[in-house]
Amino acid sequence: MTARNAPITRYTRRIASLLRRAAEQDQSHMTLSRLVELLGPRAHRLLLLVVSLFNMVPGPPGYGGTIAWTTCAIAIGMLMARPIRLPGLIGNRKLPLNVMVRASEQVVRVANILARFSRPRMRWLTGAAANLPYAILVIVVSVVMALPIPFINAIPNVGLCIIAFSMLNRDGIGVIVGLVATAIGLGVAIAIFVGAFHLGMAAVGSMG
User: Fold this and answer.
1) How far apart are alpha carbons 16 and 39 in whole angstroms?
2) pLDDT in tens, 29-79
3) Residue among 63, 62, 90, 85 at smallest CA distance from 75
4) Which residues pair with 31 in a beta bridge?
5) Which spans are transmembrane here (predicted)?
6) What is the pLDDT of residues 175-190, one digit of tens each?
7) Alpha-carbon dihedral of residues 158, 164, 169, 172, nearest 10 degrees?
8) Helix-strand-coil split of the chain, %, nearest 5
9) What distances in angstroms separate CA 165 from CA 25, 66, 134, one per listed residue?
10) Nearest residue to 103 (alpha-carbon basis) of 154, 162, 43, 59
């Protein structure tokens, strides 16, 4: 299988094409609910890749938390084997479409490069049976990433991106790499959280 015909290459080209088509209709922003509708309410894995990539793009205050809870909602839909339905508070959040289009085009280029090294292997780690543990992992990680602490979501999100990419490309080795990156990220996030807690307690103590 060539990189051009790899599953992940086809998926990322589809994302870019759909977003470009929406932008050509003179839309400036797109709600998260509309994004789910566009890519498919049952395209859990594809949407997990998209939102994890969006989480790497800097945004306004509250953006990271919104994406984290969106990730959690998608994973819950996967866990329950049901179509994705975002709560209004999250689903009505608008994202700038021009930024999404540029990001999707970059993703296509990166996917073309990564697909040269990633290929279907150890498929038992990426089959339908993996949906349950995958969804539970994403829910746990997204709840941690939703904590209002700066930089707490960066490394775990990289791990989720690798897993999502590998799941779509049926690459079990990539899933293992993503799990390691996620574990490291969670360890760093916990360390940051504990450090912030101790700093807060020290600050409160100094005021006493």
Assistant:
1) 11
2) 888 898 888 888 888 988 898 888 877 776 666 777 888 899 999 999 999
3) 85
4) 94
5) 124-145, 151-168, 175-199
6) 999 999 999 988 888 8
7) 80
8) 70, 5, 25
9) 29, 21, 13
10) 59
